[in-house]
Amino acid sequence: MELRIWSMSLTLTALLMLAGASLVRSLGNCTVVDMVAFCKERRFNHVPEGLPLKTKELLLNGNGIKAIHNNSLSAYRHLHTLDLSGNQLELIEPAAFSHNKNLQNLNLMNNRIDINYTKTRLALRNLSALTSLDLSGNRLSEVAVSDIVQNLTTLEYLSLARNFIMRLEPSTLEGLAQLRELNLESNYIYEIESGTFEDLKSLTRLNLAHNHIPCIVDFSLYQVKTLNITHNVVELFLARESETEFQLETLDLSNNKLLFFPLLPKHNKLKLLLLADNEMNFYNDLANDSSSEVQFVQIVGNVTNVTSINLWDEVISLNLPELQLLDMSRNSVRYLPPGFLRGITSLSALLLDQNCLRTFSLTEQDSLLFLQAIDLSHNQLSQLNFNISRLWNLNYFNLSFNNLESVPSDLFTKMPWITTLDLSHNRVSVCDYPLGNRRRTLGRGCAALAQIKSLRQLYLSDCDLATLPANAFVGSPLTHLDLSSNAGIRLEVSMFRAVAKSLQSLSLRNNGLDSDQIGSGLQVTFSDLKTLDLSENSITSLHPILKTLPLRSLDLRKNRLSVLQQDVLQSLLQSLQTLYLSGNAFDCCQLKWWTFLIKAESLTIPDRSLVTCNTSFKLEHIDRISQSTKANCKFDNTVLKYFLLLLPTILCILTVCMMVLLSLSSKLLPKYVKAKCGSGAEY
Ligand SMILES: *[C@@H]1O[C@H](CO)[C@@H](O)[C@H](O)[C@H]1NC(C)=O
Ligand SMILES: *[C@@H]1O[C@H](CO)[C@@H](O)[C@H](O)[C@H]1NC(C)=O
Ligand SMILES: *[C@@H]1O[C@H](CO)[C@@H](O)[C@H](O)[C@H]1NC(C)=O
Ligand SMILES: *[C@@H]1O[C@H](CO)[C@@H](O)[C@H](O)[C@H]1NC(C)=O
Ligand SMILES: *[C@@H]1O[C@H](CO)[C@@H](O)[C@H](O)[C@H]1NC(C)=O
Ligand SMILES: *[C@@H]1O[C@H](CO)[C@@H](O)[C@H](O)[C@H]1NC(C)=O
Ligand SMILES: *[C@@H]1O[C@H](CO)[C@@H](O)[C@H](O)[C@H]1NC(C)=O
Ligand SMILES: *[C@@H]1O[C@H](CO)[C@@H](O)[C@H](O)[C@H]1NC(C)=O
Q1: At what angle do helices 117-125 and 142-149 cross, to 10 degrees?
Q2: β-bridge partners, 293
Q3: Distance between CA 278 and CA 354 in Å, rounded?
Q4: Is the minimum distance from the CB of 616 to ligand 8 under 6 angstroms?
Q5: d(CA 143, CA 383)
């Protein structure tokens, strides 16, 4: 009985193993799973034979195949995907695919299809089911491209990226009626003749990034949803004036040379408009008569057509009802024309950082109901006008790196959902609460930051703050507060009291603080403070107040610490996980605390290799000193120093002694010998 059960289970195991084998099989050098043959990077120089005849996907990327012959693939009639990318393919014979009627996806990326492209062209004609073709990285000129892809009527996806295409004309892409996505990225295209894409009726994604296109005039691709022209040299973008609706949803014109805001289609569905890294500006304020007419000279054949357009009027009647993201970062915008935002009713993010804005205004007519983020950092703003009762959805507002000395006091209280506010690198003061002494506080246009229930992250770095009013943050449950680089700021217990329960991260970096100031300033019970940045101050010792903080991360870089008190460390280590210590000159002779610290397993010192101590000669890596115990310590150094100083003298004395001894001994020796041997002389 027992034996039979045992043999049965053996058979079962054998059966299971067989089943496994049919799922994953190794054939030659390929692994076959579910009709997919994985033959990637196996040094094949021809298509492997003997794979299952029903193989549907053959992945031969990264081999050394130079040619696909007439019969190379004839056995694999069920193939629908063939990946030959990254081979050295120079030749695809005309009948190479004559038995692969099911082939849909063909990847020929990174080969040398340019060498025998006329044969490849003939081979591709046999593929009546081909929907996706990747020809990127094959050194193809527009002539070769046109020859290969023309009339591949079933194609839906075509990549021609990283080739040598310079011009496009209507005949280049003739007959690609089903094409939905075309990638022409990273070529040398400087000219696209009008009508080139017009017949590609199904085209929805067009990528022209990284080319040399100088301008887009009379843009009329109604069907395209995503157009990417980033990293070209486009100075001008003009859509055709038409009542027909454009399907365009994403337009990426970033990293070009746009001088004017693009002239967008009148009826559009634009959701993302990316215009960062251009040279855009508005010029209406320069001309008094507001007739900023620009003439475009269009030369087609021998006909010159001059069109006049008043750009600013167009801008003012901007109509982008579905736009969600407008990115105009890193341009030269000095101001936004009045009413510019009026037609952008669904906007959720407005990025205007790194421009030349001097003033920024919003009025009640700019119905920015959905606006969630405004970035105005790195401008020259000295004025903000928000004639608006509420910005209901705004949660991120970055005003850092501007010239603001005052803001409308109630500005941020108009933002009931603001969570992140960056006012760093301005000279804005903070109001007390309630706005008691109105004459003093309002006179300077301070920012009222109290009683904003949503506010969590507040950045006030480098704001020239001498101190903060006692009730500055009352009723604003901040979790992150950055007060760094306010040299000489007076820390008052009162200003932290309101946020002691909520604060998780506090930066007091570069404030010229010493240990006592830290001690008196932080004398409140922070119940949740996890991160404290005290770097770049003048701290000479750890204040015992630090024992009370439940810190996870503490930054003490660039201070004047020589020893860390072990009792403070011991308390800190109950919660501390990360400690930064470099940029101090610790005392090399008192490193007990260091030995104690590096034994703590829960602690990471990310800058450990940079932590130094002072041997009074020079700064040494603390680990090196602490390992060689006391060898290099001050005392021993002094001994060594004196020893080295005295060495020549000692050597001199020794030499003199030796010489004296020697000269003496030359006289003494015979006597001694004589004396020693004297008795023997009497024989
Ligand atoms: C491959 O087939 C094509 C077309 O049938 C033929 O012209 C060519 O000579 C064949 N090549 C070889 C090497 O037999
Ligand atoms: C593509 O098809 C058109 C129309 O059928 C024809 O005139 C043209 O010669 C074809 N081009 C190629 C390269 O086969
Ligand atoms: C446009 O193309 C560039 C380069 O390929 C890419 O980095 C960028 O994300 C694309 N833009 C969009 C909106 O997809
Ligand atoms: C615009 O008009 C003002 C006075 O009305 C004048 O001082 C200024 O020079 C004019 N600017 C230009 C560019 O014409
Ligand atoms: C422009 O070219 C057309 C033919 O291409 C010719 O008939 C016409 O005379 C030319 N016009 C001028 C002004 O050269
Ligand atoms: C010149 O441009 C106008 C407006 O774009 C257009 O109506 C007209 O047909 C063009 N003329 C020529 C000769 O291209
Ligand atoms: C605000 O913008 C500046 C500069 O662009 C950036 O460094 C900073 O991280 C931003 N602040 C926040 C809170 O994202
Ligand atoms: C190291 O110690 C010596 C003597 O105590 C002192 O003169 C020197 O300034 C110290 N170096 C540093 C970087 O603190």
Answers
A1: 20
A2: 310
A3: 11
A4: yes
A5: 57
Bridge partner list, 587: 614
For the whole model, what pTM was predicted? Answer: 0.82
Collect all residues with Cβ–Cβ distance below 8 Å to 302 and sequence separation of at least 6.
none
Least Cα distance to 199 among 168, 175, 224 occurs for: 175
Q: Is 248 left (phi over 0), alpha (psi -120 to 50) or beta?
A: beta
216-229 b/e (C-beta count within 10 Å ≥ 16 → b): beebbbbbbbbbbb
Beta-carbon count within 10 A of 347 CB: 24
Q: What is the DSSP string of 147-215?
A: HHHTT-TT-SEEE--SS---EE-TTTTTT-TT--EEE--SS---EE-TTTTTT-TT--EEE--SS---E
When mean pLDDT is compared across 14-23, 43-52, 582-591, the lowest value belongs to: 14-23
Distance CA 189, CA 185 (A): 9
Convert the pLDDT of each residue in 617-667 to its tens digit: 888 898 888 777 554 555 555 555 555 666 667 676 777 667 766 666 555
Pocket test for ligand 4, best of 283, 285, 286, 288 (most atoms within 8 A of CB): 288
Calculated CA dihedral for residues 542, 545, 549, 554, nearest 10 degrees: -20
Kind plus residue range of the DSSP H or E element containing 125: helix 117-125
Measuring from atom 14 of ligand 6, which residue has the nearest CA? Answer: 305
Phi, psi of 664 (to 5 degrees): -65, -45
Name the one residue in this structure whose structure tokens are 């993010």: 349
Cα separations (Å) of 516 from 233, 490, 522, 540, 542?
Answer: 58, 12, 10, 10, 9
CA of 290 to the centre of ligand 4 (A): 12
- Ligand 7 within 6 A of 398 CB? yes
